[in-house]
Amino acid sequence: MKVGERGQVTIPKDIRERFGLGPETEVEFRVVKGSIHLKKASKKLNLQKWKGHSKASFATLGYSSVDKFIDDVRGR
Fold first, then answer.
1. DSSP class of residue 74?
2. CB–CB of 54/70 below 8 Å?
């Protein structure tokens, strides 16, 4: 296999299938002890969409904040 003129290589189909590498899959490159390692990138979670999601549930339980709930659970 050769590196193309723009630095691209083709990952063999059996490897793509084995590791779930499809179109638009993000990967990371690392140099480890003089070798190049390619790794499927971890999914990034968008936690912002969950902000405030449990507010009503905590209010129903009588807590004004998550911090007060955690303090109560921990016995503080």
1. T
2. no
Query: Can you give the residue ranges of every domain in the chain?
Result: 1-44, 45-76
Q: Would you say domain 1-44 falls under CATH 3.40.50.1460?
A: no
Token pair for residue 45?
């979670």
Long-range contacts from 13-20, C-beta under 8 angstroms, 24+ separation: none
What pLDDT score was predicted for residue 47? 83
Taking only the tens place, the pLDDT of each residue in 24-58 is 999 999 999 999 999 999 888 888 888 878 888 88
Query: pLDDT tier at 4 (50, 70, 90 boundaries)?
Result: very high
